[in-house]
Write a structure and sequence with these properties.
The structure holds two protein chains of two kinds. Chain A is mainly β. In chain A, the strands form three sheets. In chain A, strands 2, 5, 6, 10, 11 and 12 form a six-stranded mixed β-sheet that branches. A four-stranded antiparallel β-sheet of chain A has the order 3-9-8-7, with no helix packed on it. In chain A, strands 1-4 form a two-stranded antiparallel sheet. Chain A is globular. Chain A starts with a strand and ends with a strand. By secondary structure, chain B is mostly beta strands. In chain B, the strands form two sheets. In chain B, strands 2, 4, 5, 6, 9, 10 and 11 form a seven-stranded mixed β-sheet that branches. In chain B, 39% of the residues are buried. The chains are: A mainly beta, B mainly beta. At the A-B interface, β5, β6 and β10 of A face β5, β9 and β10 of B.
């Protein structure tokens, strides 16, 4: 079955440290890939997206992600986190392009940045 | 900028009552979605639509109906609200299968 896995429910890092949030998917073709962020009591906002081309994509606020076809992964990275990055991060995968194909969201990773 | 609005932003309903959640988008997007989010959990797709006057079932459609009377508007209807439907509901829109734009959410409490 098509699925998206975010193996880390919670991640705690110190301010200024580097960050990697993991995302793996199960899908036979190359999907469209997304990372969203959700701040408390808000809706989800797009951080970055991958459709094709360069496997490393840049997003807002210094975030980047790397697509790996061989590993079926789309990990999110940031070189130096700030306390304001504390939020929940969702990986999402668009599995197909027909009208009834859906976007599948991972269960999210809650990031806590400690001072 | 893309805009998705939801109303109401919060609602308290009684068990067995009817609840209608509304969503409006000004993005000219073809797809619209309704998700629910339970505390500490991810998003679960309830219903979606890729064209006006047509809706599709998502992963958890039981107990919910949806209506898409126009490209801009998409409603979620709980005919007989139950305690288990207490959650935050998000509407989103997108152009085909590209990135989704989310509304601010509606916090529904069923008592």
């Amino acid at each position: 079955a098509q699925s998206v896995t975010q193996p880390d429910a919670r991640v705690t890092v110190s301010e200024g440290a580097s960050l990697q949030l993991r995302c793996k998917y199960s899908y036979s073709a190359t999907p469209y890939l997304f990372w969203y962020v959700q701040y408390p009591r808000q809706g989800l906002q797009l951080l970055l997206k991958y459709y094709s081309g360069d496997p490393v994509v840049q997003g807002v606020n210094g975030f980047e992600a790397e697509f790996s076809k061989s590993n079926s992964s789309f990990h999110l990275r940031k070189a130096s986190v700030h306390w304001s990055d504390s939020a929940v991060y969702f990986c999402a995968v668009s599995m197909g392009t027909s009208n009834t194909d859906k976007v599948v969201f991972g269960t999210g990773t809650r990031l806590q940045v400690s001072p | 900028e893309a805009a998705v609005t939801q109303s109401p932003r919060s609602k308290v309903a009684v068990t067995g009552g009817k609840v209608t959640l509304s969503c409006h988008q000004t993005n000219n997007h073809d797809y619209m979605y309704w998700y629910r989010q339970d505390t500490g959990h991810g998003l679960r797709l309830i219903h979606y639509s890729y064209v006006a006057d047509s809706t599709e079932k998502g992963d958890i459609p039981d107990g919910y109906k949806a209506s898409r009377p126009s490209q801009e508007n998409f409603s979620l209807i709980l005919e007989l609200a139950s305690l288990s439907q207490t959650a935050v509901y998000f509407c989103a829109s997108s152009w085909t299968h590209y990135e989704q734009y989310f509304g601010p959410g509606t916090r529904l409490t069923v008592l």
